[in-house]
Amino acid sequence: MALAFIGTDFHDTPLADLERLERRADQIRDRLIAPDSPLSGAVVLATCNRFEVYFETEAFHGGLDFAIAQVAAELHVAPDTASSLLKVLYGPSLVQHLYAVASGLESMIVGEAEISGQVKRALTHSRSVGQTTSSLERLFQTASAVSKQVSSQTGIGASGRSIVSTALELAQQKIGNLLGKRALIIGTGAYARVVSAALKNLGLANISVFSRSGRARQFALSHELTPVTNEQLDLEMARADLVVSASGSRGFAVDLDLAQRVRLLREGNGLLFIDVSLSRDVAPEVELVPGFEIIDLETLRLKAPAEHIDAVISAQEIVREAVTEFENEQKSRAADPVIAALRAHVGLWVEQEVEAVRRKSGPEAAKDVERSLHRVTNAILHTPSVKVKDLAKDGNHDDYLNAVKLLFGLELENDERA
User: Cα-Cα-Cα-Cα dihedral of 310, 311, 316, 322, to 10°?
Assistant: First the structure.
């Protein structure tokens, strides 16, 4: 069995293409674990700036071709087109990539707070539909542990830095302190919840929310905000000092016509928009309106402050050490069939001897002999079991395996060297 990865992110792929992948993530996930799939399990990590598939398969090349074909089919493109979009990782490179992603080292904003939770939720979702394997579980659980270690030991992301908080920092550079000001949130999804909390922490006097899907009232009640209806939108936007859009719905929540109406109501005063939606909620043409400005994901990618270089270097070292530990653990597991076969072989001798004592001296004597022989067996096999795992980590357990097979007459099923 082998772990493999296909994926892309904001470094290599335009945000519009990432949006298409994120939007089809559930359908791609279903295709990957269809009844005829050669994959044993798969975890899909789809966020606003990355699309990644981690999977396990018996046949690496066959599994890889299948995974790419499913992405291509869902996007309605040729497999070669999908292949050119997706990079492939396996072995230590795969492990290092996920650990770095979970730790925020590969994010648009280094150390962002959301990504560790997104990694956990990706595993939880796959687990809930029966799409994980023990290796994928171990990979993602260790990734979460590495993320916590990086956060606690390096200080990366300690201030809760995220796409939203960084956008608000840039906003304050442009319009000043937000304390006591008014804000309008467009959207009621996961990002809107983060936006709401961040704005409250900054001490805004009034925060309202608008939803194109009609969920504003319910969201406002649960988050102590002011709901805005379609009829109220123009006036409420005109009264706002800041508009933060995070709906992720199709089409523009703020188009040029709406922006022009709002400017008239504001009597020519400018307005700042923060658009953290992958699909863009605010039309680019809105910046044609005098005084209207947009902070979007591209702005954040280009202008977001970098974390301190020493913290990044320390985090990278933690990741490298964790990758080595994971790989050693994976290699040591290659010795498990040898240990199991050896214990089963010796255990058969014990059973035969116990049965002979039972027939000769009765059940009580047999129990005493069984306890004694199990203690002896554990003592004898402890050192060989530890040794074969150590040798497996170094990739040098073949001679040991041959010796065990010769001494004990063992025939191991599924010998991976065959």
Answer: 130
Instruction: Compute the distance between CA of residue 3 and CA of residue 55 in angstroms, rounded to an integer.
Output: 6
Q: Is 347 exposed, middle or buried (0-12, 13-18, 19+ CB in 10 A)?
A: middle
| pTM, two decimal places | 0.66
Query: Residue 209: helix, strand or coil by DSSP?
Result: strand
| 48 carries an active-site annotation | yes
**397 pLDDT more than 70:** no
Place of tokens 């005829």: 36
Q: Can you give 362-409 as a three-state secondary structure string?
A: CHHHHHHHHHHHHHHHHHHHHHHHHHHHHHHHCCCCHHHHHHHHHHHC
| The pLDDT value given to residue 382 | 67
Distance (Å, rounded) from C-alpha 203 to C-alpha 162? 18
Q: Is the dihedral of CA 146, 152, 155, 156 positive or negative?
A: positive
Domains and CATH numbers, the chain: 2-160 (3.30.460.30), 163-303 (3.40.50.720), 331-408 (no CATH)
H or E stretch covering 243: strand 242-245
Strands (E), 162-239: 182-186, 206-210, 226-228
pLDDT > 90? residue 417: no
Taking the C-alpha atoms of residue 243 and residue 224, their distance in angstroms, rounded to an integer, is: 18
Catalytic pick among 15, 42, 45, 48: 48
Tell me what pLDDT residue 416 has: 43
pLDDT score at 7: 96
Backbone φ and ψ of 243, nearest 5°:
-120, 125
Asked whether the predicted pLDDT for residue 418 surpasses 60, the reply is no
